[in-house]
Amino acid sequence: MPEEAETGLRARLVDVGVELVAREGVQALTLREIARRAGVSHGAPRRHFPTHLELLSAIARRGFAELGERATAATAAGDTAPPREQLTTLAEVYLRFALDNPGMYELMFRHDLLESGHLGLRDTSLPLFGRLVELVTLTRPDVDARLVAGALWANLHGIAQLWGWGSLQLATGADDFVPLLHSALDAHLGAEA
């Protein structure tokens, strides 16, 4: 097969995986199903992705790239805004992405399913966390920013999961996650002055 067709097949397999995870979730991402929907033999994906984990990682990389693009677009205009405001914007983008893309979001953080070091997945995912650490540092220079950013990220992840399942709406009576986001930011960064 010519090199251009091989490159096209690789992209097509990832495209099909992205579509499949959006429609049916992580559990639908089998090599056979991706190959079937791409219109190739079930062995064809192995030429580009020797393991299932590598294909899943390539699909997740697309999710991290999209989340990174959304975060950059949302925060670029506000680079002159106070760090706390930038953090709020970044956290809201993260939560909206998670709620709009539940299958992809689940895949992106299932490190038990991914080969994050092999395909440069860490290179795609860590800059967003680095930005979170940077903004926490600017907001709270008196704390270990990596730990606070990690705790805040875990809190945001919990909000995303529990909101997506309907649990937080039931428990809090809230009809919007934004007040929960502000409460999480206050808990980790202190109340706004």
Kindly report the average pLDDT value. 89
**How far is it from the N-terminal to the C-terminal residue, by CA?**
63 Å
Largest sheet: none
The gyration radius over C-alpha positions equals 19 Å
pLDDT < 50 stretches: none
User: How many separate helices?
Assistant: 10
Fraction of residues in helices? over 70%
Number of strands: 0
- Derived from helix and strand composition plus strand pairing, the structural class reads mainly alpha
Strand content: under 5%
- The sequence of SSEs as H and E is HHHHHHHHHH
Q: Tell me, briefly, the overall form.
A: elongated
Layout of helices and strands:
Layout lengths: L2 H22 L6 H8 L6 H4 L3 H25 L6 H18 L1 H7 L12 H19 L5 H20 L2 H6 L5 H12 L4
Supply database-style keywords.
single chain, 193 residues, mainly alpha, 10 helices, 0% strand, elongated
Structure description:
It is built from 10 helices and no strands. The chain has 193 residues and is mainly α. It is elongated and about 60 Å long. The protein starts with a helix and ends with a helix. The mean pLDDT is 89.
Condensed summary:
The protein is an all-alpha fold. Helices cover 73% and strands 0% of the residues. Helix 5 packs across helix 6 (102-108).
